[in-house]
Amino acid sequence: MMDLALIQRTRPLITTSDYLLLHDLSPSLETARGNWDREAYHHSSSGTGIGLHVIPNGDYDNGISRVDKMPLGWSGEVEEGRKGTGGGLGKRIREVMEGKTTEEWETVKNEVGRGESDVELEKQLRKVGAYVLHTWQGS
Asked: Of 3, 55, 4, 48, whose CA–CA distance to 22 is shortest?
């Protein structure tokens, strides 16, 4: 059992029934199996005319990497009369990425890592503007 009230004090957690109520849908629409029932949740059967809309992935996830600014050292070249913070790591990671927005961790580790731990390599990559994206893909 989980104490949802306790968890909700420290984490942004909402139950499916709470979500349905926020959208003026009956909590009775919630499935017993816990899966997201697109038919029931997105097409209002409550008579209110309210349904939920799915935004197609391509409308917001179009393969463009967005950044606020390029940090010093990203290029691995001399900037403002001093060496970038990555000691050439930025250039090496750019070569590995070859214009892609993501790359497998093992590939990056094998190509640009120098035997350091995953945590240390991640810190070095952050210094040159390359960030590790943790996903469920390997699960």
From this structure: 48
Tokens of 108: 């990056």
| H/E segment holding residue 9 | helix 4-10
Rounded to whole angstroms, how far apart are CA atoms 102 and 105? 9
Distance CA 86, CA 69 (A): 16
Q: What is the pLDDT of residue 136?
A: 67
Q: What is the pLDDT of residue 26?
A: 83
Report residues of the chain scoring pLDDT below 50: 76-86, 139
Range list of H helices, the chain: 4-10, 16-22, 38-42, 57-60, 89-97, 105-112, 118-127
Tokens for 56, please give them. Answer: 């197609």
> Dihedral of the CA atoms 55, 56, 57, 60 (nearest 10)?
-50
Q: Which one-letter amino acid corresponds to residue 107?
A: T
Task: Enumerate the H helices of 54-117 as residue ranges.
Answer: 57-60, 89-97, 105-112
Amino acid identity of residue 105, one-letter, is W
Tens of pLDDT, residues 7-39:
989 988 888 888 888 878 888 888 888 788 877
Tokens read off for 21? 């109520």
